Amino acid sequence: MPYAKISIGDAFRRELRGIVLTLALVVVVTLMIFAFVWQAGLTRGTVAYLIPVLIAAIRWGLVSALFASFCGVLASAYFFFPPLYSFRITDPQEIINLVLYVIVAIAVSQLASRLKRELEKSQKREKDLADLYAFTRRLAVAFDVSDIQAAIEDHLTAAIQRKVVLFARDIPDDKGRRANVAVPPAVLAEIAKLEAPQSRSTDSSSATSGSVIADQGGIWLARAVSPKNPEFGIIAVNIGKPTQDSVDDLRVRIDAILSDATATLDRLGIAQAINEARMRSQTDQLREALIGSVSHELRTPLASIMGAATVLSTAPALCGEPKLQALVQDVRSEAERLNDDIQNLIDATRISSDGVRPMLEWADPGDIVDSALERCSQRLSGHRLALNLPNDLPLVHVDPVLVKQALVQIFDNAAKYSPPGSLITVAVRARDGRMIMSVSDEGAGLMAAEVPHIWDRFARGERLAAATSGSGLGLWIAKAFIAANGGKMNAVSDGPGRGTTMAIELPVEAATVHPLESDSDE
Amino acid sequence: MSEPSPIVLVVDDEIQIRRFLRTGFELNGFVVHEASTGTEAIRAATLRPIDIVIVDLGLPDMDGSDVVERIRSWSTVPIIVLSVRSAETQKVRLLEMGADDYVVKPFGIAELLARVRVALRRQSRAASGEPSVTVGPLTIDLASRAVTLNGQRMTLTPKEYRLLQVLAQHAGNVVTHQHLLKEVWGSIHMQDTHYLRIFVRKLRQKIEPAPDSPKILVTELGVGYRLALSTEAESTVAAPVAVP
Fold first, then answer.
1. Which residues of B are less than 8 Å from A310 in CB distance?
2. Least confident of A197-201, A313-317, A510-514, B24-28
3. Contacts with A336 from chain B: Cβ below 8 Å
4. Distance from the A308 Cα atom to the nearest Cα atom in chain B, whole angstroms
5. What is the predicted ipTM?
6. Does the global pTM surpass 0.90?
7. Which residue of B has its CA nearest to A314?
8. Which is it for strands A384-388 and A218-224: parallel, antiparallel or unpaired?
9. Residue contact A308–B197, C-beta within 8 A
10. What are φ and ψ of residue B38, in 5° steps?
11. What is the three-class DSSP state of A211?
């Protein structure tokens, strides 16, 4: 990769190496000619000096080739033309020979070294194209803005062969990333200047060509990825401590790579995609914040409503009033239902805004099922319940509260979609390193077409939407909670009216109970 | 009724919550003091004799946990925290800070009263040195280290007894996993909840009539365990506090 080695020291060392090797070649050829002259009685071997010229031109470039020609002339004159072992040449015929040799040697050097340059150029171009192709492929699978930015950053890093830091525009949480990279403050200031909107419109020269900032850590180059599309951000490259010439070379090179890259980005409409993604995430954030604060505001008065209702129901004044008691009971149970809906909204907000972070601990699956049943005892009171809980179940390493909440959603669904008096079967079993908790009802069942959609956010069973209430968040929340615990959920039904079985599947790892600790007192 | 009425301090910034708590407690024979801020609560707790404190976690001037910590620094008065769901770590922290129990909002008054009675009873038992705890068919005599189930003496391993003993000392109130692990297995096993799970399972096989749906040794998911003392207290909601 010749373009990677731009420092003068490097180039000089490379030339010197070529010259030394050329000299060695000339010595070898001279020895070989001597051998031939001695063996076969030949007297003229000058033409053989074209061999080192050719090799040097192809391997090490023009300088070495010219050096080889020069050495060839000297060696011929010294070793083979009379008077021998002197640089003087007396025979005019020989002088003509030598001049011809020099002309041919120079022509060969030129041709061969040009060939070499072309080859290098085409190899470089080929690599650039391969890089660009890889970049395109990576962009095609990019999922969000940060994926795209990482792709741009990595592509430039690979192409320039220097660490490139990309500064995304207007991304608030990018500040943290900036802090992670050791970019000197002077460079950060320059980037802030490039980012400022006025510099993009008025001072377009610095936006296109970028700026060079010298720091004790080396020279930094900062410029916009694309002068047309500020969406792509700004890059900063630390190019070490090269000379002015190589800085210019590198700038040309960076320009070329950036223009290729931005052409690709333009072609794929990435700028628009980034813009849309940003707007989408802002709307999402706004919506989540709204839901979050609304649900909090709703929950506070609910606590008063429910508390007051329970106080009323125990009040001596209402003791002999069954009708009023029933009303108070309604207030309480409706408040409870409302509370569940609000809790679902809060859970949904939690899932989509900052993800679910499970608090893993070793839990007894029996405890989880029991506490979910306890929580749903009101809702399940109209159903018959069968519990199949083997007493040798392994422990699971999960967040028991999240699993319980998922189970509560499933129980809730089972109670909602199956007739009163029907049987709900809860079974837990461990098999093949997995723990399966299943809840089967004798209710409305599912049509094959419905099965894939029941897990969607705001999914409501169309067939029964009128007969049941709910936000359509329950199973979506359950699935997210189980997924956060490394498990999965599935639903099976024999068809409409034939009941549904919902199953939670959790991974089981062996709990390491030290025999000494657990059995020490047995 | 020769016993004096217990005095409860209600700390909440929502006037509606304070109002229903006042009515609920007064109907059940309590004397109620109110405070709407943490500062007020701490002042009230220092100036007046208080039997139990109810603290909401979201106070305008300071965190509810600060109130718990400040009161605990000089007083052993029972403290019950009003918390929200999905805050198990916070509950555990509060319990370790010295709160006796928690109730999740929204809650019914009966639930809170049951917790309050349990905490008061524990306080008075500690004061009188009452040595035995009875939970349904189970009696734990802390003085003679004897456990009887339906009058039958039971044989427990030393660790099983220790587990039951710690729970009985806090009978009715939740005891955190960490506290149980520290008391039974020592502080280096504070994170090893699986020891606890396995022992609780064994213990339940011995003491629970139906180990699948335990009624005596109850799980508080994500927090700890509770010896369910409140079963009979809840059924007699309107009765005055039984102070032995």
1. 24, 108-110
2. A197-201
3. 106
4. 5
5. 0.83
6. no
7. B238
8. unpaired
9. no
10. -65, -40
11. strand
